[in-house]
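Thread: quick sanity check before group meeting

JM: Hey all, I'm pulling together slides for Thursday and realized we never actually wrote out the predicted structure for the chain we discussed last week. Dropping the sequence here so it's in one place. If anyone has concerns about the input, flag it before I start.
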Amino acid sequence: MTRTNPSSKTASPAASSPDLPASSGLCAIHQPNLFPRLTTLAKLFAADTWIVLDDVQFTRRDYQHRTRLAALGEPGRTQWLSIPTHLPQGRQTAVRDALIADPDLARRRSMAMLRQYYGASPHWAGTAQALDPVGAAFGRGRTAAVAETSTRILLHLLGWQGQILRSGDLSARSSRSQRLADLTAAVGAGAYLCGTGGMKYLDEAPFAAQKLAVVPFLTPPAGIWASGRQVSALWSLTTLGPVALAGHLRVVAAAQTPRCPEA
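JM (edit): ok, ran it. Output follows.
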């Protein structure tokens, strides 16, 4: 699929760059989530590029500072793990500017809760060692730093080889769907990977205008995916181990089908 390079004054700022690489691969755009749910992690795993959407408004009812842990041998028993977060600009605070209230206490409580829930797993030793950078990220004092690091670590454990960029470092227009299209174009991707929730509001016209495909991200309804929209991927990771879980994610990634844009 070849993307045209619009020359009008309304063209994407990124798409007009002479250094833009050739179109290829899938782009996922998602806010940093604390130990993300399995479906979120699978979407990022299926992408070649994850654009961390960290310059949008922080939302307390979302997963930027919290995740739902499922008990290792009893997945129906769940509990929230939350990072107490202060918003310096109130409701207008951007994700990247949200501050951890008492970072040291939050780190100790968070890491202890993870050990309590998953310490009995045969895969815990390797997982715990990999989580050291997450604990260290609390020292930066920002909730987004911990959330992004937690996702990076999970992707690394699963062998993901993609690239990670931040939305604040890329040029894009402000309207919602237009911005997503511009960000996708900015990284030279050929398609935008969109979750089922996002498909409800997505306007595909800005993507079609830049010859970008839209890929609705879908997961199976059963097995480990039955609770994939509710609980952290840590349950699947510590239950199955990284090799087996990566196998499940590769199958899902291979099944994603683009919706090619109309001219």
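AS: nice. The first helix runs from residue 38 to 46. The mean pLDDT is 90.
JM: adding both to the slides.
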